[in-house]
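Notebook entry, structure prediction.
Reason for the run: the old model in the group folder had no record of what sequence produced it. Starting over properly, with the input documented here first.
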Amino acid sequence: MENTLKATIAKAFQALYNTEIKAEDLSLQSTRKEFKGDFTFVVFPYLRFSKKKPEQTANEIGEFLKTKITEIIGFNTIKGFLNIELSSSYWLNEFNKIINTQNYGLATPSSKPTIMIEYSSPNTNKPLHLGHVRNNLVGYSVAEILKASGHKLLKVNLINDRGIHICKSMLAWEKWGNGETPESTNTKGDHLVGKYYVRFDKELKKEIATLIAQGKSQEEAEKEAPLMQQVQAMLRQWETGDAATLALWNKMNAWVYKGFDETYKRLGVDFDKIYHESETYLLGKTIVIKGLEKGIFYKAEDNSVWCDLTNDGFDKKILLRSDGTSVYMTQDIGTAVQRFEEFDLDRLIYVVGNEQIYHFKVLFKILEKLGYTWAKKMYHLSYGMVELPFGKMKSREGTVVDADDLLTEMEAQAKAISKALGKLENYTEEQANDTFYKIAISALKYFILKVAPVKTMLFNPAESIDFNGNTGPFILYTFVRIKSLLKKSELENSLPKSVETGIAAQETELKLIQLISTYPAIVQQAADDFNHAAIANYIYELVKEYNHFYHQITILKETNQQLKQFRLLLSQKVSQTIESGMKLLGINLPERM
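New structure, fully documented this time:
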């Protein structure tokens, strides 16, 4: 209908004002709740063609539409806003199409080109924290939305498993670990390694303070501190393949990987392929050396290798240190080349915080200079920081909120609130724990994903787990309410596949149908914008409208069987749409709670 309306409005301009406007250049919007109508056309931008007042222009176009489209039963004009009202039979006919469409709202799988999306990308020197939580949830959800829009998706993770920061935790464990392991301390491996990363930092600060007290400058002290000298030597040993260093590296990384896997499972995210910086940095070094030979890069007096981007609006960027060791940019170059050689990618998306915007602009520009035409297919999906409304929550590192601690705290809150509300009576312990988890993870994911990636967000655990308002638990409760309603009806599996288009549908019912009808467009727009918040906020609007319908309309006690079946079908389709949309956010819904 939207396309029909646009095409007919274009004809109206031709007939009424002798002006040719392309239908695809016109836009319609859903009529605001306080006004009567289904679609609204804003005439203000077109008054130069009609040369008439806004109200007169809108009325003339409205009259033209009414004579051409039989489904239009009326219109009203509010200044320059033309609100178009469609017949009940039109919307009921649309509903019949919806309920008979398999996988409604989702495009044909793998009907569009391949997109690779990289997210998570942790360092193996510490556990995942709250920032990683947002990264993982954003990456996974955007991937699912792109998949729902028809793209073939490759979800990948780049583990930053080498470098000076990794050697810091290794050296600290070697010095002060006394051979302790995750098993001997009953500690997750990533938390154990993170403990020694923090220990290194504390000990290094002591050495720097001592050197400054001896008359060294801050810069001199940081460079000459014995721990820093030792960790740099360890990095060189790693890059030259020293057996003992590699053995320690493999052992500690294995602890971290096991810990990461447990956290990923709790978060409900996964990957199709995992890359390791230790396997891609050498390719990056080879490419940089070739670029140096071709004159694309240059060598400084200390033998470090640089790319001069000052004529491109950037700074000079180091690619190899004077001792030949590589930097992040080096491995990013190698990883990108490897990925495009491995797969025929239409797009490569990096989900990384907005503090790395400059880094990725430089990366893309360097790849262009190296002659890779696919560099223009690369995109940095940046997201804002996650802030807390109060001081730190429990954190093993003392400076950040660990993902594991956050999940545990959320589950504890879900348990306390659910028990207080008496929502889990007659549950087995296993059923109750599963429900606590689903409530907690829905609260966490929805609260984060209802905010567009570009925005900095304030995460309030207590607010996120509220059973009222724009929260995951509120949506879960509505979904469970619908499932309970359908079960009580005893008609869930025997409902008809269509409704009579002549039944007396009420305004709130037609509003629900209209909202459901926009779901495919919402999914596509979310995919185009890489914006999971569009899905989250759509689901909330649908849930709010359904609750309005639920409290206003008789369902199970309706004596007219056609109306009863219609309302049950409408409820069923709402629940299916909620379930589909929440799945795109990585949220699985309970059947009861």
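Summary: The radius of gyration is 29 Å.
The old model has been moved to the deprecated folder.
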